[in-house]
Structure formats: C-alpha cells, structure tokens
C-alpha cells in the first residue's frame, strides 16, 4: 500500500478534523524521517494509518484487544489508549501491512514505550508536534525534534506525564518506563 492509497482509505473512515490532523502528522513525519535518516515511505504510511481506529466502537476495540492477546493492562486504562494497538491490528488485518516497524509505530504512538525504534519515535513525535497542535509546551518539542529525537522524546514524555498527573489521570506503565529510559540514558 502506498501513501495515496492509505490517505484515501483513512479519509473514508475518519471525520474531517481527524483526517486533517492525519495530514499534519504525515507532513511532520516526512520532515522528521528525512532529518533522522528514517525511511520516509515507512514514516508516511505509519503516519497515515496511526489514528485509523480512533473512532472505532469501544466494545469492539475491547474484543480486538482480548482476541489478539494484546496487553490486558490496557483494559484497566482509559479507552482513549486502545485506538493505537487496535489500529495496528487493523493496519495488518484490513490493510495488509506486514512491516513490523510500521505496525509498532502505530501500536505505540499514544503511550510510547522503552526501546523505541527510530521510526516509532518519529511517529510519536510527529503526532505530538504536527502543525495543528497548539497546546502549551508543543514549541519546546518542535524546536528539538528536528535535531535530537531522544531529547525530544524525553521532553514530550515528561510533558505528557505532567499533564496526566495534573488531572489525576493514571499513567500507563509503558509511558513511565519510556520516560525513565530517556532520563537514565542522560549523557
Ligand atoms: O490520537 P491523538 O489525539 O492524535 O493523540 P494520542 O493518540 O497521542 O493520544 C490520545 C489521548 O490519550 C490523549 O488525550 C492523551 C491520552 N493518553 C496518552 N497517554 C496516556 C493517556 N491517558 C492516560 N490515562 N494515560 C496515559 O498514559
Ligand atoms: Fe492517536
Ligand atoms: Fe500522541
Ligand atoms: Fe494522532
């Protein structure tokens, strides 16, 4: 599947606003991939598909998680986290994507995780900094992401965790482990 096909497919699935967000993520992913020597084709495909399950029925997402033996801890967390791993299952089963790195970039785009590949970081960050994102703190990450993926991940994970904590929201374990890795890696 190429980028144009992927865009056409998600355009049919997603509401207009989310489709526009997706176009922004594609643009940022292309930029970051080019800067960091990551496959641009992989980055744009993962970006195009990353939110494909965003508006999928909650009960059906629960079923997909159980049937595919995905991390059962997901079910203890807000269903907002489910669209990423479920999207990866759909990309594989419905769209025939077999590239594991692309599938993992979709799977971990919301929570992050330790030991992320360069492509996974590019997609996580592209989702965070795409031109439509306006929240405070986004400029920090935008400024750094083109230069240093690890530093940008460290800031993005810190800010995401701070944001969740400020609302007394639970933080998914992978997000915390990912953050720990970047601060422990500190040169
Ligand atoms: O799908 P997007 O809106 O483009 O962005 P996303 O997939 O990165 O995040 C979706 C939502 O998930 C966002 O509102 C924040 C939330 N989220 C991310 N990590 C965690 C989380 N929510 C909880 N409770 N815990 C997390 O660790
Ligand atoms: Fe998402
Ligand atoms: Fe995100
Ligand atoms: Fe997104």
TrEMBL record:
Key word Membrane present: no
Keyword Nucleotide-binding annotated: yes
Keywords: Hydrolase, Iron, Metal-binding, Nucleotide-binding
Molecular functions (GO terms): bis(5'-nucleosyl)-tetraphosphatase (symmetrical) activity; metal ion binding; nucleotide binding
Catalytic activity: P(1),P(4)-bis(5'-adenosyl) tetraphosphate + H2O = 2 ADP + 2 H(+)
Ranges where the HD domain occurs: 18-132
EC number: 3.6.1.41
A Pfam entry, by short name: HD
Record's protein name: bis(5'-nucleosyl)-tetraphosphatase (symmetrical)
Origin species: Jeotgalibacillus malaysiensis
């Amino acid at each position: 599947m190429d980028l144009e096909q992927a865009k056409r497919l998600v355009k049919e699935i997603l509401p207009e606003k989310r489709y526009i967000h997706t176009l922004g993520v594609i643009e940022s992913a292309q930029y970051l991939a080019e800067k960091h020597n990551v496959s641009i084709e992989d980055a744009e495909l993962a970006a195009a598909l990353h939110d494909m399950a965003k508006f999928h029925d909650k009960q059906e997402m629960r079923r997909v998680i159980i049937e595919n033996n995905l991390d059962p801890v997901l079910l203890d967390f807000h269903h907002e986290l489910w669209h990423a791993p479920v999207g990866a299952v759909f990309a594989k089963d419905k769209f025939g994507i077999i590239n594991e790195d692309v599938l993992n970039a979709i799977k971990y785009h919301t929570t992050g995780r330790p030991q992320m590949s360069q492509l996974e970081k590019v997609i996580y960050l592209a989702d965070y900094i795409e031109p439509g994102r306006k929240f405070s703190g986004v400029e920090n990450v935008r400024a750094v992401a083109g230069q240093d993926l690890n530093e940008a991940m460290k800031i993005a994970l810190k800010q995401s965790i701070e944001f969740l904590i400020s609302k007394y929201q639970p933080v998914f374990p992978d997000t915390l482990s990912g953050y720990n890795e970047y601060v422990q890696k500190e040169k």
